[in-house]
C-alpha cells in the first residue's frame, strides 16, 4: 500500500498512521506533509523506525524552504516518481 501524507503531521493522527505501516508499504509525504521530515520534530523518530521506505516530493520541500533541515532517511523524488509509486501500489491511503 502507498500511504500519502498531504496535511501537516500536526493535523494528523501520526501514531495511528505509523501503526498501519507494513514492510511492503511505501510512505510519501507531499504538500504540508513534508514537515514530518524536519530534523528534531516529535514525529521523526517514529516514522524513521517504521518498516517502510520514506519519500518526499522534492518540489514541496523546496517550496517550503526546508531542504537543509530534513532527515537523510527520506528520499527526495519528483512527481514523475510519485506516479511510479502509484502504479506499484494498487491500494493507496491518503492521510
TrEMBL record:
Location (main, coarse): cytoplasm
Compartmental location: Cytoplasm
GO cellular component terms listed in the entry, alphabetical order: sulfurtransferase complex
Any coiled-coil regions, as ranges: none
Keyword terms, alphabetized: Cytoplasm, Transferase, tRNA processing
Pfam families associated with the record: DsrH (PF04077)
Matching PANTHER family: PROTEIN TUSB (PTHR37526:SF1)
Protein name: Protein TusB
Native species: Buchnera aphidicola
Classification of source organism: Bacteria, Pseudomonadati, Pseudomonadota, Gammaproteobacteria, Enterobacterales
Protein encoded by which gene: tusB
Amino acid at each position: 500500500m502507498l500511504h500519502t501524507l498531504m496535511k501537516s503531521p500536526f493535523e494528523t493522527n501520526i501514531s495511528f498512521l505509523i501503526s498501519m505501516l507494513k514492510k511492503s508499504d511505501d510512505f510519501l509525504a507531499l504538500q504540508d506533509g513534508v514537515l514530518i521530515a524536519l530534523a528534531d520534530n516529535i514525529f521523526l523518530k517514529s516514522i524513521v523506525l517504521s518498516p517502510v521506505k520514506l519519500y518526499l516530493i522534492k518540489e514541496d520541500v523546496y517550496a517550503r524552504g526546508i531542504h537543509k533541515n530534513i532527515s537523510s532517511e527520506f528520499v527526495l523524488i519528483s512527481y514523475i516518481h510519485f506516479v511510479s509509486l502509484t502504479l506499484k501500489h494498487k491500494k493507496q491511503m491518503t492521510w
